[in-house]
Amino acid sequence: MQRRFLRTLKAAVAFSLVLSMSVPTFAASSKAEVQQTLEDLENQKAQLQNRLAQLQANKADTESYIAELDQELTAVYDEITRLTSELDQTEADLAQTQADLEVAKEKEAEQYEALKARIRAMYESGDTTMMEIFMQAEDISTILNANEYISRISDYDNQLLQALNETRQQIETLEAQLEEQKAELENLKTQEEAKQEELQLVMDAKQAELGEIEGSIGDAYDGIYSTEAEIKENEQILADIEYQEELQRQAELKRQQEEEAAKKAAEEAAKKEQSGSSGSSSSGSSSSSDKGSSSSGSSSSSGSSSSGSSSSSGSGSSSGSSSSGSGSSSSGGTATGSFIWPCAGGYISSGFGYRQSPTAGASSNHRGIDIAAGSGTAIYAADGGVVTTVSYSAARGNYIVVSHGNGLTTLYQHCSSIAASVGQSVSQGQTIAYVGSTGYSTGAHLHFEVWVNGTPVNPANYI
């Protein structure tokens, strides 16, 4: 609406100057309106710049908080990895201990069965064995030695059984300790996983908030660029008006000078005529009057010619201003409204939505698509826009965010390097980064997201 008013105003200024030199009131009124419009636009630009500064500060705070969350998530991830490794070792030790316990129990049982067999045999032989010893013994010493031998065999069996029993008890104690250690490790791991899930929820919320801020930053940049274009257009209109006013002033000055010269010439002629004879004086006066009339007509004609020249010049200047404004509005960074494939080749290796987490720390809620491509492959801006973020996080790796206006934002993650900077206007298809495997990644690929008003949507609907 404001642009239409400016174009109408520009045409009206040129047309009014062509028609007549006697309409300074309209020109002054138009100039005042343009000056007021410029003042309003400058105020609007200042407000947008203040808003942008606030958004940048909010973005910095949010990114700082996200960085802290990222560090906490990394620490939790490392702790889960350590506990998992320790738990695996404990389970392996427990399995070996349980195997050793089974062997000890078997040995104890075998020894116990052997002892029972010997005792049973000795019992069954009863007094016969002892009688044979008495009958065959030559003296009491032989009898005592035989009895001592039998006693020693019994003591050896008892000691062996006792040693086996102690070994079994030690292994059972170790087994109980390992079971307790395993339970404690599992409990710690569960706590860390719950903490990781809680931190991830906060991280997701903050990432969404950051997406909204980045969208607003993009809109603020668009507003500033648009306002600056309108300011330039109004400045050109004001320059045209002032130029036409200067032409009017010069034409009026010339007219006054010509009138003054004609008046002086008439006065000089009158004086000369008065000094002559009375008869010729009357004739000279008439001639002088005719000459004055002629001079006045010449002055009027000259003024009309100046007015025409002024009007022609003003029209040309006005046309140039309009062309300049149009060129400004079609500069780089303008969104086309449709996306292109954001990578030089590649294929979708993981789609949008729920999936099995590909690596520790990666989310199972996939908020974009993965495009598998060789490391160093060029990454393109899916559409024209303004770069609002270039950063790094443990999860995303190197990443870049482009705002396309109207709440539409694209995100490119796991880059090996970035080829654009914050605040830079980029055109559709421009190289902004290169494929890598930074952050939580299992191989070289581009993780590509599309956000609408702070909410991630399926990129497949846009490319």
From TrEMBL:
Superkingdom of origin organism: Bacteria
Family matches, as InterPro entries: Cell_wall_metabolism_enzyme, Dup_hybrid_motif, M23ase_b-sheet_dom, PcsB_CC
Keyword terms, alphabetized: Coiled coil, Signal
Keyword Signal: yes
GO molecular function term, any single one: metalloendopeptidase activity
Signal sequence range: 1-27
Region span, Disordered: 250-331
Spans traversing the lipid bilayer: none
Chain coiled-coil ranges: 27-125, 157-209
Annotated ranges, domain Peptidoglycan hydrolase PcsB coiled-coil: 103-173
PANTHER family: MUREIN HYDROLASE ACTIVATOR ENVC (PTHR21666:SF270), PEPTIDASE-RELATED (PTHR21666)
Protein name: Peptidoglycan DD-metalloendopeptidase family protein
Annotated organism of origin: Candidatus Scybalocola faecigallinarum
